[in-house]
Amino acid sequence: MSLAGVRMLQLPRIADPRGNLTFVEGQKHVPFEIARVYTIYNVPGGERRGGHAYRTLQEVVISLSGSFDVVLSDGRDTQRVSLARAYYGLYIPRMVWRHMENFSTNGIALVLASQHYDEADYFRDYEIFRGEAAS
Ligand code: TYD
Over 5-51, what HEC string results? Predict the structure, then answer.
């Protein structure tokens, strides 16, 4: 089951015996200009991050190190995506609830966001989100 608009982006990968290189350009490798970048790291075993949706924000989530799962919901259907490679980006459009879990030791999430941080853009209550998504 794939939620509408959610998709895996394959990022450029320059393989090199000295070590691989991956890069991302806004509007080219991700479908928006990148306004903000944040990382989630040092996640203790069993902890969960996220647990919200955005009214307008779009994001791409990349596993820079280790692995973790992103669990998505459009208010009706759910989808689980495991991320473990630095050259895959999970594109999450607006109005998709998400949380991240199952972080491995040294799991690091890099998140590219289409807008600056704005608390007013968050849905933090799943039932309110679900009602809005259904309308
Ligand atoms: P939050 O988005 O709630 O984290 P999670 O994705 O795990 O739910 O953010 C946690 C805190 O960090 C919250 O107080 C807001 C702050 N924050 C910023 O100030 N700027 C940011 O870009 C982000 C992502 C969070």
Answer: CCEEEECCEECCCCCCEECCCECCCECCCCCEEEEECCCCCCCCEEE
As a whole number of angstroms, the distance between CA 117 and CA 80 comes to 25
Q: Could you tell me which of 58, 50, 74 has the C-alpha nearest to residue 112?
A: 58
Ligand 1 atom, smallest distance to 116 CA: 22
- Residue 11, SS3 per DSSP: coil
Residues having CB closer than 6 A to ligand 1 are 36, 38, 49-52, 117
**pTM of the model as a whole:** 0.97
Per-block average pLDDT, block size 10, for the chain (135 residues)? 91 97 98 98 96 98 98 97 98 98 97 98 98 93
102/23 Cα distance (integer angstroms): 26
Domain with 126 in it: 3-134
Domain containing residue 105: CATH number: 2.60.120.10
Contact between residue 7 and residue 72 where contact means Cβ atoms under 8 Å apart: no
Structure tokens given for 76: 């009706």
CA of 61 to the centre of ligand 1 (A): 15
